[in-house]
Amino acid sequence: xxxxxxxxxxxxxxxxxxxGPALVAIVDGCPPGLEISLDDLQRDLDxxxxxxxxxxxxxxxxxEVEILSGVFEGRTTGCAIGLLIRNTDQKSKDYSAIKxxxxxxxxxxxxxxxxxxxxxxxxxxxxxxxxAMRVAAGAIAKKYLASQGIVIRGYMSQLGPxxxxxxxxxxxxxxxxxxxxxxxxxxLEAYMDQLRRDQDSxxxxxxxxxxxxxxxxxxxxxDRLDAELAHALxxxxxxxxxxxxxxxxxxxxxxxxxxxxxxPDGFLSNNAGGxxxxxxxxxxxxxxxxxxxxxxxxxxxxSIDIHGNPVDVITKGRHDPCVGIRATPIAEAMMAxxxxxxxxxxxxxxxxxxxxxxxxxxx
Amino acid sequence: xxxxxxxxxxxxxxxxxxxGPALVAIVDGCPPGLEISLDDLQRDLDxxxxxxxxxxxxxxxxxEVEILSGVFEGRTTGCAIGLLIRNTDQKSKDYSAIKxxxxxxxxxxxxxxxxxxxxxxxxxxxxxxxxAMRVAAGAIAKKYLASQGIVIRGYMSQLGPxxxxxxxxxxxxxxxxxxxxxxxxxxLEAYMDQLRRDQDSxxxxxxxxxxxxxxxxxxxxxDRLDAELAHALxxxxxxxxxxxxxxxxxxxxxxxxxxxxxxPDGFLSNNAGGxxxxxxxxxxxxxxxxxxxxxxxxxxxxSIDIHGNPVDVITKGRHDPCVGIRATPIAEAMMAxxxxxxxxxxxxxxxxxxxxxxxxxxx
Amino acid sequence: xxxxxxxxxxxxxxxxxxxGPALVAIVDGCPPGLEISLDDLQRDLDxxxxxxxxxxxxxxxxxEVEILSGVFEGRTTGCAIGLLIRNTDQKSKDYSAIKxxxxxxxxxxxxxxxxxxxxxxxxxxxxxxxxAMRVAAGAIAKKYLASQGIVIRGYMSQLGPxxxxxxxxxxxxxxxxxxxxxxxxxxLEAYMDQLRRDQDSxxxxxxxxxxxxxxxxxxxxxDRLDAELAHALxxxxxxxxxxxxxxxxxxxxxxxxxxxxxxPDGFLSNNAGGxxxxxxxxxxxxxxxxxxxxxxxxxxxxSIDIHGNPVDVITKGRHDPCVGIRATPIAEAMMAxxxxxxxxxxxxxxxxxxxxxxxxxxx
Amino acid sequence: xxxxxxxxxxxxxxxxxxxGPALVAIVDGCPPGLEISLDDLQRDLDxxxxxxxxxxxxxxxxxEVEILSGVFEGRTTGCAIGLLIRNTDQKSKDYSAIKxxxxxxxxxxxxxxxxxxxxxxxxxxxxxxxxAMRVAAGAIAKKYLASQGIVIRGYMSQLGPxxxxxxxxxxxxxxxxxxxxxxxxxxLEAYMDQLRRDQDSxxxxxxxxxxxxxxxxxxxxxDRLDAELAHALxxxxxxxxxxxxxxxxxxxxxxxxxxxxxxPDGFLSNNAGGxxxxxxxxxxxxxxxxxxxxxxxxxxxxSIDIHGNPVDVITKGRHDPCVGIRATPIAEAMMAxxxxxxxxxxxxxxxxxxxxxxxxxxx
Lengths: 363, 363, 363, 363
Prior knowledge:
The structure is a homotetramer of 363-residue chains.
Chain A: E1 5-6, E2 11-15, E3 22-28, H1 38-48, E4 65-67, E5 71-72, E6 75-76, E7 81-86, H2 108-115, H3 131-147, E8 151-159, E9 162-163, H4 169-172, H5 185-197, E10 204-211, H6 225-234, E11 239-244, H7 255-258, E12 262-263, E13 266-267, E14 275-276, E15 279-280, E16 285-291, E17 301-304, E18 310-313, H8 327-350
Antiparallel strand pairs in A: 1-2, 2-3, 3-7, 4-7, 5-6, 8-9, 8-10, 10-16, 11-16, 12-13, 14-15, 17-18
Helix pairs in contact in A: 1-3, 1-8, 3-8, 6-8
């Protein structure tokens, strides 16, 4: 199947380059009758949009989405939904200097070897610009999931060396970092200001949580819910690691410590991150992702050109010094797409199942 | 598509429960003309096999595989390969006591809610027993990849609190832990002996490395090579985290530190873990996975039965106190299946591509 | 995806050659809780089985199926179902003479060019022997569909030049031909007896009908129900044509004649064959398939060997002079698999839909 | 997978309704480096375009396609290709009268029951308008296949009762019918003129031929080349039957007559239609499809409304009296997409295969 499609029943297929005319997506399998408006999509697109604070790239994109099909009189028809976002602020001249060389730690080298051809303008298809369409498609999934009682939210849990323990969802939308602790924001701002002066970039850690997920989602043995989340989240640009629940901390845990005990009142802990045996347990689903520091920085780096000659590369253009800052809505979108797909797959097979057994789910 | 199938061109479909009559797999898409023997499969099956040291479950399974189809006169025909492993040491009586209750941190609760029905004998489909078929299928992939110069090997990089820096591949097959440092083995043995006395279990971290991978494998944007590896590795029982290259360490890295610079002599570092923009770079591909401590322990834990009543659960039967110990061949198999699939997908689309550009790849 | 897998939610993956040790299948996505026994599978296997009359091949195969997984205490668990049928009457010596030559109108030539390798014993994977597994898997689908009120039956509608208008389902299981008119049977027997004396083979036409199908199955625009039926039925060995409803007769029809008018009492005709716009209408689904005369005949035919030299080929061994005679259960199985898959896909997306509009469906 | 996606390595995903803002497609998996221009796409779009003769619908659509991505400096990059066609001549007011009733033999009834929701304007997604995108995507496949020596052409082989034996390709593009015999054209014109006076519609038969196809394409057992062609061709609006080679004629054929004998100079006949055992043989691939008479006619027909009340329906608007007339480019496109996909799948698995055996292929 297409490497540009995600999902099996609820499928998202996208196309579009950083500096081409437009981004486009086809979202298929959405249940009919869902009320959907441009606002539903725009809200999340605006959360991801560049240029809204001094801490992200200064590229200006309205990211206005047009619905081409699949929605009629304000409701989904069940037919494939076409989405279009025109690129409006591409400045190709910024990139011509790097046409024949490989920026270190970019996809230039690998795209060149894979395809022979390369749209070198702003990274082409490898640019994070494509994530706008993930967010638009994810907004449709979120809307349907919300109608089923499922809420998906994310936040920044670490910026470079600064760990950010979760404090309150109320803070997350009140600052440019999706930081869940308002008292941490000045520290983050100071760190980013210094980073820009250093002409450097930094990594970040994002946490995404889905609450209200019914038990039963996930398709063993290969399409376990955690495996699909790992796939979807790792497919986001710059992501180098994914954890579910306790994640790598479980390496040093003992079984007596890790196992989430059950009582008639619910689970007593959530080391599992809401997934047991690859299937949702009814607890909140918790995933963490690590984003690397972007390699588009103005500090020169050693590289080679396409003929193999050594060169020093400075990546100009307009870039995010921390791509993690805008990653929260993207991670939410990918989690929404996965849960949506699995909700439909689950009920396709198991619509008949009736279990008279308590559904737990606290913590 | 089936949740029990992995891959798109090279596909592995499996079935079979812990205490049913047999495990079975159908491996499709293997190139014809590959010399394959039972020994090729048995070698890795034996590395995963239970009961070979005192540190793993005492279940005795020969894990003898039969090739049912797709191989003729010692070579693959290009047709689907059927594989069969009979279960020989299932003791169903061990499990009848837990029929109506949910073992904490097991898949009991989630399988029950998903399907209504449950094969409670030894975990049924959720048991790690199914991984035998991953290993058998992976051995076929490994054999073909080896013919293309690709070698896949893994080792244990952490056992509970004990970190194990890589020292030498020579050590890995010389001990029960796949430990790459012979001097560490006594410490691991002592730790495991104490753990058994404590009636507890512990987590582990495994590292898998593929060397000799050509640049170009991976299908953006959703089927990036790292995303597929995350999917495949996270689908292994007990895995709660996956990292590529620097992984979560990149959160605190700066761009100047993280980026792998290129010179005419090769890459100068490998924070990327051999993957840039979701495509292999020619460097070794490096992945780490975190395995949780198994929840099958004899120390009692709080739980409920299917009627919602509180119970205390002791998991008897024969179990691994550290499932990570036998996970190395499984992780290798899954990495092999992913690389194999992507090698075929890549050449399907890009067989015409000829690039007269140096292939780097050191480190 | 694997060319040996059919279906997207209800998937059937098979492997196995004519003269290898066994046939194997993995059926995934079956709803849990379905009562299934070996008898359910064996009944249809026996209907397809060779050697039950003088009009089919004299190969003796018990075609006894073993269920390896996915069924526990007589009910499906929702996990992948493994099926195994051992080959017991393969006589490989019959075939060694044709190792290096291409039988005319067989798959020998094309398998050789595709794979380079070829299991020449009895056609290997290209033998109709593999259809046993389609029938076994189809029996599971039939059982579930029956629980939803859907009944699938087929009959022979033409044998060579002899057209067989439908008369009664009661006749179909009473003769070796699946002939729906008992008065036609002697004519068919006489024709076949003469055909054997002529050392020749002949084509046939089969009709399959599904009754009780709810409106709504089929996924436009590419996975229309008729398109999937065409795929599934054309994938049966020897099939060269598929029609839905009026089929090729509609070429000469006018719109006023072809269109199936609706009244409050139901449709007035069924030229559509129960499918409008690629979606089931509630009317019976009707498909016809054309099977070619087998090319395995003892009358010599011109061909070449693998070096390009001309040869005369006589195909010995045990063959069906009319492969259409045993095709009815296979066609039923494939229709069942398609409907099953689409029933699950449909409810995955559209489980919420409630329409207060009459369901028609007569004729 | 999405019902709006066709193909596994070369995939075509489409969206768009008859009277919505636009049609859109994403074509993925195209090999990089293929020279492609708007003209390549427009040529076939113009062949399918409505309103070019008095025998087709008078809707005026420029069908101008825009390439949104995947093509850079005139060559494909290997990344997903986005295509957009704006609808320009939708007249929604024509359709409001039929909002609450089901036109006989239309998809109205089935879409209503499947989705609950329905875009009633001009048939919405069920309109043949979507086939424009099949043609645009098919043009890309055709261009690549041509570079491999494969040529795909089609013609009308029957219009209503008038059979049209193949005479010459030269004639096909010289008339509005894709008629391969210039002497037949006046008869076809007269027939159509009378049909319009009768306010009726009629069926047609189209034949598509691929020449220059290498042996080896097709993936047994379910994704046989003939099975996939049947799927793809049956998925075209109004198609009710598909034949490969001799098709239904083989029912009455004997084996001695049907089998295509081989000599060192080539095959002596082509009853197989270029496919043996589901794999291309090197002979021309020949498929026939039957298209039903459109049900959009102004002669009143009995039907019901969504409340179950009887109504008489006259379908106004602008319609094709014979949808078969514009079907030739669509059938070519679908055959091209199938062959393209299978060429890539084949070389993905079998790129290593070298066979020193003559490739036949005459007739």
